Structure formats: structure tokens, C-alpha cells
Amino acid sequence: METKVQPIPASKHIALVAHDGKKAALRAWCQAHQAILEQHTLYATGTTGHVIERDTGLTVHKLLSGPMGGDQQIGAKIAEHEIHMLIFFWDPLASQPHDPDVKALLRLAAVWNIPVACNEATADMLLSSQLMDKEIDRHLPDYDKYLATRMG
């Protein structure tokens, strides 16, 4: 499939997701980076969003809980170019009943070429990047062109 260039804006829409065993770590990470995060628009799956909003005062657009469809809602927002970055503190040591949803979410983040952090160290590196507050170009599938060749 051919690609096209689309910018990721300087003011990013960031999705925050954490498995139950990592919610405290994500909350602490958000508290440590509150000054940066408040410059961007935040989205989160249900319980995670409530915890972050309650304990940091950050404004968070809360979706459904992950197992109830929140992971899929974030995936849809990625596919619709509404989410520009994914911070997902997942628990690799715990079994997750909604593991197929998690895999689909990570796949969509890769397809649409958005930055993803799956642990605290990577999340720190993303936020401290000199590109964090700048518009950057990303290459993504040219789905419109693909459809035109299939439909024409």
C-alpha cells in the first residue's frame, strides 16, 4: 500500500491505558510529568482515566473500561487520527482476559504510525524528546488511494 505524509501536531492527543497491576505506576508517572501532560489533550480507558483525573487534577476524556470496549474505542480514535500517542502500561506478568483487544490496539498504533510506550522508561523518553512539543510528519497508509484503485 502506498503511503502519505500527515503531521502529528505540536499539541498532541495522548491515550493513557494501564492494566490493573500498573495503574498505580501510571498514576505516579502522570503526577511526575503533570506539567508536560497538561499541555496536551488526554484520553484514557475508564478506570485508568478516573484514577488519573482524581489524583492529578488533569482533565481526561474517559472512555469505557478496557475489557468493556475502551481499548477498542482508543483503537478507533487512532484509526480516525484523533489519537497521536499511546502510553500503555501493560502488565506482562498477568493474564488478561481481553488480550485480543490489547493486541488489536497495539497493531493499530503500528499501522497508523503513532509513538507508543509500553513501560515507564519508554514513556519518559517520549515525553523528554525534543519533538514532543513540535509538529512532526509521519508516514501512514494512503487508504483513500487504496480504495480508489479498488473501486475504480
UniProtKB/TrEMBL annotation:
Gene: mgsA
Reaction(s) catalysed (UniProt annotation): dihydroxyacetone phosphate = methylglyoxal + phosphate
Keyword Transcription recorded: no
Domain of life: Bacteria
Keyword terms: Lyase
Positions of the MGS-like domain: 6-152
InterPro entries, A to Z: Methylgl_synth, Methylglyoxal_synth_AS, MGS-like_dom, MGS-like_dom_sf
SUPFAM superfamilies from the UniProt entry: Methylglyoxal synthase-like
Family affiliation: Belongs to the methylglyoxal synthase family.
Residues reported to bind substrate: 19, 23, 45-48, 65-66, 98
NCBIfam families: MGSA, PRK05234.1
KW Lyase (keyword) present: yes
Record-listed E.C. numbers: 4.2.3.3
Record-level Gene Ontology MF annotations: methylglyoxal synthase activity
Enzyme class (EC, first level): lyase
The protein's role, per its UniProt record: Catalyzes the formation of methylglyoxal from dihydroxyacetone phosphate.
Protein name: Methylglyoxal synthase
Cited SMART domains: MGS (SM00851)
Organism: Pseudoalteromonas fenneropenaei
Active site: 71 (proton donor/acceptor)
